C-alpha cells in the first residue's frame, strides 16, 4: 500500500486521559449505566422513547465531571439533557451524582462526539448544543485540532432544529476569536448578540469552580451564542 492509499487517521480534538476511577464512579458505571447510559451500537436515538417525554433536548459536548450539566438538568426539568464525554471518571461521577439527586432528565454517551453525532442523532432533532471550555490547543501548530471548525459547525447545524442554538464558552481569548471567525462565516447561523459580538453569560449556564478560579486570576470568559436560521 502506498502512502497515498493508506487510510487517514481522523484528527482528534481531545486527548483521551483515562484517569483513575474511584470505587463510587466504577460502581455507578456498573449499576446505573442501563438507566443513564446510551451507546453507539443503539444507533439513531428516539428522544421521546429515551426520556419518556417530548420535551426539547439539549446536547452538551465534553461535560467534564458533569457538575454544571447536572445543575442545568435540575434547574430545567422541562428540558432533557444529553451529555457526551470520553473520560470514564467524569461519566461515572455524573451518573452517580444524578442518581443521588433523583434527576431523570439526563442521559450520557461515553464516546467521541463526532461518532455520536453521525450515528445516533437525527437531523433537526436538537433544541440546543453546548460546548463549554473545550481544549483550546494553545500552540499554533495544534490549532487544527480545535473542535470548532467549519465542517464540524455544519454537522451541528444539521442536527439542530430551526431556531435552535449553538452556545460556546471559553476562557482562552485567541480561541474565542477563532470561534467568532468560524461562526460568523458559517452558513445558516446568526449571532444572537449581534454581528461579531460576544454574548453576556446567560443565567442557565452555571459558573464552574474552574471558571471562578480563572476569574480570581484575572482571566476573562467569552460566550458565543449562534441561532440556526435554516
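Q: What amino acid sequence fits the structure above?
A:
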Amino acid at each position: 500500500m502506498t502512502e497515498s492509499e493508506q487510510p487517514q487517521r481522523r484528527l482528534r480534538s481531545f486527548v483521551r486521559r483515562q484517569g483513575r476511577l474511584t470505587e463510587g464512579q466504577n460502581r455507578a458505571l456498573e449499576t446505573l449505566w442501563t438507566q443513564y447510559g446510551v451507546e453507539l451500537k443503539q444507533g439513531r436515538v428516539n428522544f421521546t422513547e429515551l426520556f419518556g417525554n417530548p420535551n426539547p433536548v439539549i446536547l452538551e459536548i465534553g461535560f467534564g465531571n458533569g457538575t454544571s450539566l447536572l445543575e442545568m438538568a435540575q434547574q430545567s426539568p422541562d428540558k432533557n439533557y444529553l451529555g457526551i464525554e470520553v473520560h470514564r471518571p467524569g461519566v461515572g461521577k455524573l451518573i452517580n451524582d444524578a442518581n443521588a439527586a433523583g434527576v431523570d432528565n439526563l442521559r450520557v454517551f461515553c464516546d467521541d462526539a463526532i461518532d455520536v453525532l453521525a450515528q445516533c442523532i437525527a437531523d433537526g432533532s436538537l433544541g440546543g448544543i453546548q460546548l463549554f471550555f473545550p481544549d483550546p490547543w494553545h500552540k499554533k501548530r495544534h490549532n487544527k485540532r480545535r473542535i470548532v471548525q467549519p465542517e464540524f459547525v455544519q454537522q451541528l447545524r444539521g442536527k439542530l432544529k430551526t431556531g435552535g442554538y449553538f452556545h460556546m464558552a471559553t476562557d482562552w481569548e485567541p480561541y474565542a476569536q477563532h470561534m467568532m471567525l468560524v461562526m460568523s462565516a458559517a452558513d445558516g447561523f446568526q449571532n444572537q448578540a449581534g454581528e461579531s459580538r460576544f454574548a453576556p453569560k446567560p443565567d442557565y449556564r452555571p459558573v464552574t469552580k474552574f471558571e471562578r478560579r480563572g476569574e480570581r486570576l484575572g482571566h476573562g470568559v467569552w460566550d458565543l451564542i449562534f441561532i440556526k436560521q435554516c
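Q: And what stands out in the fold?
A: The chain has a mean pLDDT of 91.
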